Amino acid sequence: MYNILICDDQPDIVNALKIYLAPEGYRLFEAYTGQEALDIVRREDIHLILLDIMMPQMDGITATAQIRKISNVPILFLTAKSETEDMVLGLNVGADDYITKPFVPVEVLARVRSHLRRYALLGSRVAGPNTLTVGSVCLDDGSKTVTVDGEPISLTPTEYSILRIMMRNPGKVYSTRALYEEVWQEAALGSEGSVAVHIRHLREKIEINPSQPRYLKVVWGQGYKMDGGK
Questions:
Q1: What's domain 3-122's superfamily in CATH?
Q2: pLDDT single digits (tens) 168-188
Q3: Could you point out which of 39, 141, 166, 193 has its C-alpha 20 to 30 Å from the C-alpha of 159?
């Protein structure tokens, strides 16, 4: 059974999401401020968070930054179209995805299932060595760890999935659409922009100088590739 935390300062939205998710058998937790969400993450084994951006006491962006200090649980923002800039900022501080209000139940369920599958996969253990190395970046898919120059780095499940795909085929150019559909396991339908945010966040973690990347390079007009770091 997966534990899902729903956090929004509007009870009607929390209740609506509970109606969508309850038939799936998830154990649901609810919070109405970022601080309440953070407190629940600290004491419960949460597997996914649906988190509003604009809330009292502690907003969703601040809550995400605090949660990322203690957990790599998938975080999906609940965002209005007018909050695009805040949504991008949230992805930069560690959120994995976003769902735009008003919600479409089918989309909510699809995104939740997709992120739970990936989180469960990355939490599993695979027998035997399965290590990918590009330059000084080393990804161990058995222990689900990544090191750069021997130093461990912390990645969200989405960041890990993108990096693993690209490290499996160094030099191959992936379009943002291809990356999105392979990681999220669904049609992009205009959501490819989130890939660029995750790539930028990955660069900040694995590159010495993110503005002049050695590994995650853009191929203008085509997409991204994993280079050998030369």
A1: Response regulator (3.40.50.2300)
A2: 888 899 999 999 988 888 887
A3: 39
If one looks up domain 131-226 in CATH, what number appears?
Answer: 1.10.10.10
Give residue limits of the domains in the chain.
3-122, 131-226
- Does 124 have pLDDT greater than 50? no
Fold equal for 3-122 and 131-226: no
The tokens of 61 are what? 């962006």
Per DSSP, helices labelled H in 8-67 are: 11-21, 34-43, 60-67
d(CA 76, CA 203): 21
- pTM score: 0.65
Distances (CA, A) of 48 to 76, 149, 176: 8, 31, 24
Cβ–Cβ < 8 Å for 166, 202: no
CA distances from 148 to 38, 70, 136, 152 (A): 29, 21, 5, 6
Distance, in Å, from the CA atom of 14 to the CA atom of 89, rounded to the nearest integer, reads 23
